[in-house]
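Figure S7 source data.
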Amino acid sequence: MARILLGVSGGIAAYKACEVCRLFVKGGHEVVPLVTPAAERFVTAETFRALARRPAGDDVYLHLTRADILVVAPCTANTLAKLAHGLADNVLTEAALAHRGPTLVAPAMNPRMWSHPATRANAETARARGVVFIGPDEGETAEGELGVGRMAEPEDIVRAAEELLAGSSALKGKRVLVSAGGTREPIDTVRYVGNRSSGRMGVAIAAEARRRGARVTLLGANLAVAVPPGVELVDTPTAAELERAALVHGVDADVVIMAAAVADYRPAEALAAKRPKDSAAWAVELEPTTDVLAALGERKRDGQVLVGFAADEGERGLARAREKLGRKNADLFVYNDVARPGIGFDAPDNEVTLVTPGDERLVAKAPKAEVAAAILDAVEVLL
Ligand code: CTP
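Tokens for the predicted cytidine-5'-triphosphate complex:
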């Protein structure tokens, strides 16, 4: 999810910025609060640090923190004037000059101040520079005057920020189905045949797709990591359950990404009770499961993008991934060389090769969130 600079300037609406901060955190974002000295007359920086779950302590370079977006809420007339003219006399206005990327401003001030020609001109200057405004809304101000000047509601500010973050992504508004984790195939009521997949890669893809404004459904098979906020989870612990859910949800998905390690074989018969231990050998017969990716490939609609994963070893594995791309009617295969240490299964990092019909591209070793972004960049090209 995104890193957000939350600038809070000195108006009574600063108390509402606490809710903005809380909603961003709840949405899975990292919030860096930038509280001006004037805002501290209303709410302390400590309150925002606690809500943003940030460690105490003064960072002298706080204003240089790189972030995906700057949100100023509330933005007073004074701060708006400083933003328009490039003044940098506190942590918030300094950060505004150092920030590159989208900026969302939620003005809050007395209606007469908002309608003053000086403020109008400042808002125009900022807007012309690409700053996006939300509000102010019409209504009763804290001091009891009626007019336009109230800060927009926290939910609306958060929604506008997320829309700005999604930007012009080709995934915005698209339905994305992602499978993640590893299926477990029961042998009896307590034992199973499973694999080492934690679900980190698929979950990182789901989070990134959500960040880009997609409607994301996650087929989760025994996930060891938390489901990202805003992502719909369908529990699919076994290959059979994953198959069923994938065929249902795959029908109207624009993008299907099969990152789960689906069992290729399952016990032909799962015992209805726990098998007690004895000294005899126990032979378990395994039968093949349905290849869900291939089944989705057979049903693929025009314009639908289908992505498969391949965990294999070396150059020969890569050649097999290329062959599977055609055989399973997929548009992109993400190849993981599992012979390499420290990447892939149950690791925080990954290094993959993206295989498309006409191209092959290495994504160098990086945290799975970055690899997820590279995979979705490739999906956007295919869309
Ligand atoms: N997959 C699937 N259904 C299965 C097994 C795998 O949909 N029953 C999907 C996985 O989610 C993954 C891709 O197929 O996207 C992996 O393809 P697969 O041919 O199973 O490759 P590996 O298991 O990596 O390799 P191999 O075929 O050599 O076992």
